[in-house]
Amino acid sequence: MQVPTxxxxxxxxxxxxxxxxxxxxxxxxLMSSFFKGGTLIEECKELGIHTxxxxxxxxKDKAWPWHAIDEKFFLPTGFEQPGITNAVSFLARTRxxxxxxxxxxxxxxxxxxxxxxxxxxxxxxxxxxxxxDKLAMRVQAQEQGVPxxxxxxxxxxxxxNEYLGRVPAPWVLKPRSQAGSIGIKKCDTAEAVWEHINRLxxxxxxxxxxxxxxxxxxxxxxxxxxxxxxxxxxxRYHTPPFDVWNTGGxxxxxxxxxxxxxxxxxxxxxxxxxxxMRLVRGVTHAEFIRSHDGQIYFxxxxxxxxxxxxxxxxxxASGINPWREWPRLELAYLQQKKYKxxxxxxxxAGLVICLSRHEHPxxxxxxxxxxxxxxxxxxxxxxxxSSPKSAKVDELLDEYSRRLTQDVLAVAPxxxxxxx
Length: 420
Hints:
Layout: E1 14-16, E2 19-21, E3 27-32, H1 38-46, E4 50-56, E5 71-75, H2 83-92, E6 99-102, H3 108-118, H4 125-132, H5 134-143, E7 151-153, H6 157-166, E8 171-175, E9 185-187, H7 190-200, E10 207-211, E11 215-225, E12 228-237, H8 241-247, E13 251-255, H9 263-276, E14 282-291, E15 296-302, H10 310-318, H11 322-334, E16 348-355, E17 371-377, E18 380-387, H12 390-407
Helix pairs in contact: 1-11, 2-3, 3-4, 4-5
């Protein structure tokens, strides 16, 4: 019989002064089907965590922070079942995996399935559904009294016709399991709705129809521990992500001033949604819309860090980076220590980002003293500004959006799925 090179027997931790102590390094398995999460990986290194990166073969040449990664594995076919479960179970024969962390929205359900299979702590299949399935999260929110735009499952034709006859147009047809604005169709007539539905064939039940609510779209980024929202920062999109995705342009978002009429309501509904979705600990990125009459509706929530460099926006405004806090809180829970959020600073910040027609766009002329971060690589351009004054951030975002449109902007057609 072949004997594994590492001991398979589960060693029992011990306690000292009430703190759980391992006689080895904690082992975190980080899963990502997209190139992201470098800040989290580096934080794991700083915390003394043995880090295993599991990603796809197509990403092996990306600029991962290799110095902070202890082991790396690449899957040629992606995170498909049953292959992914077999692969991780094989790793677990000789590694005591303490936590499984998905770095991208599309990995949340796979990670939950693996936790269920390995009986590893963290979000399981049922809870993960609330953060990945747009229909499940709407039903759950509605049942818990959280306002959502009126919706119907694309399932029963009588129910769909009743909905279209009762709820005024326009409507949006949404995939249940895509991320952000991917695959969303806006429809102004019932005929257009049915045209899209009929094209879907057997994929119809993977969609829902929702009333299109005009208004301002916000996002709230949070850190949660022991069922408590310890940190939440609200921001407003200058142009809704749906519009940017479908027509192109500069994506811009800025933090919400506490004096804004939506400020308190956003933080409150965000807390209600997190409670409704039963998140015990982790990070979230949620989106809400405030209609023209002032009503705030829940749109969706993800159990991951916001994309498009929103983590850097959050850090510029508060000093808190969700990527860094995620492994910190997981390690604290593993060791049964008290997790303490770093001191929060109170600034206003804004982010502009767009596709660039140049591989390395020239941002040397973006020199306002409020600029705290710039990105100019791989056909992307981005700038973050920070100031104590919300009006100054708003002014700079308007100016830089215009200049980026003139200097570098490229427009790509929308796709029906996420692009690696």
